[in-house]
Sequence to fold (458 residues):
Amino acid sequence: MPSATSAAADSHPAGARPRRRAGRPPAAVLDQDTITTAALRLVRKSGYEGFTMAALARTLNVAPSALYNHVASKREVLVLIQDHLTSFVDVSAFDTESWDQAVRDWAWSYREVFSKHTPLIPVIAVLPVADAPKTLAMYEAVSAGFRRTGFPQERIISAIVALESFIFGSAYDVTAPADIFDSGSMAASTPNFTSAVERLARQGLESPADAAFSLGLEALIAGFGALRR
Amino acid sequence: MPSATSAAADSHPAGARPRRRAGRPPAAVLDQDTITTAALRLVRKSGYEGFTMAALARTLNVAPSALYNHVASKREVLVLIQDHLTSFVDVSAFDTESWDQAVRDWAWSYREVFSKHTPLIPVIAVLPVADAPKTLAMYEAVSAGFRRTGFPQERIISAIVALESFIFGSAYDVTAPADIFDSGSMAASTPNFTSAVERLARQGLESPADAAFSLGLEALIAGFGALRR
DNA sequence: CCACTAAATGAATGGCATTCATTTAGTGGC
DNA sequence: GCCACTAAATGAATGCCATTCATTTAGTGG
Fold:
């Protein structure tokens, strides 16, 4: 069977105009764009705990069931949000900067955007690109940047996936509680870990999350940079 | 206020015996170990969609509310599962192999374990280590390995966090649908991405997820390895 | 003005985590 | 041998949730 209902593909099924045989319905209050915008506004105001279909409908002055004429499920709303957010990820450096700097700028921007939306990560990470056109556009820009710099073609996707995995994982760290490394009463039995945590804290100009992200990202950039030819 | 109720800390609050002033209660059917074991078995059989407090109680022949005498919330059960799973992550190579190989073995093992339990990742990623003693033990083993190889102490935590972020992100990829990169009808407008996907597929002995994980992991190992002194 | 249609409605469904007053049954002290 | 105390288990209730569906509403092209 074909993959699940695709939000994007359904809105313009490649060349086919939306058909209608007879009269138009009444002026629609709702469509996917309206829903996406309202959903994002709601999430920013109430977080993902407060983001329910009922609450979303309320902000649109509409019954909850009305949403289901435009969207198959709550998950589909999350997909719409994620694709919209992806357009805020800055890929412009691939046109203006060196490859190294472009990857750096893109990765920091990507993490920045999704660190405020970590509940979307499980959705994005396994989402077919065909269901998220703006996300696909981002991949295209990044792929083009990799190709231009002489990156071996058969490894472009792997490199991007690896970077993205690192970015998603790192996005969680940004929101972690400050005392996450406090080993509490078990400090005595974990001397190496505990002393490493202290050493980090003593240094710490950057936040721990930023320090880890920077360290890992530079290693990935250096490692991948060496593959170019 | 102190951090949330700690499963592990509550079972042996460092030196204090569990107090009781008067008679013991009836022989308990339930405790955290029993719950953890049953929960893991249920997850393996029914997945995380089928994992509800009611279903868990049913497998234990107990009322759902009985669970709340031993556990504060469903989230706490997830924490118990995650900590238990962490003991299946193999850190033994840090005692027997070179640093490079030990990191490699540990990372593959870590990804392997959690790729079957991705719904736990949002929980683990922001969980204070004090709430997960077996996880803390893993960090201790890894920290010790990094220290032994002459890794700069103030960067040990950052390096581990970076590796872990990469591992968590990569765990999602393992479960992604095979057609995740199929750009479908929009292939024409994304030539660089589409050709990169084809090049990968043409190569592809490994799964795409394995190829990306291997590529990223080797870059991180090489980059971090160079920091040793 | 009619037939058709998509959109919106409101009530209903079933599932969920969690709470709480109450009951149950060991145990240590007398 | 009984009593007082306790932790554990119960079952009913709560409130929230996503989702479904039969029905109603109101533009529009013929």
Observations:
- Residues 1-21 of chain A have pLDDT under 50 and may be disordered.
- Residues 20-30, 62-63, 65-66, 69-70 of chain A lie near DNA strand C (CB under 10 Å from a C1').
- Chain A touches chain B through 79 residues (CB under 8 Å).
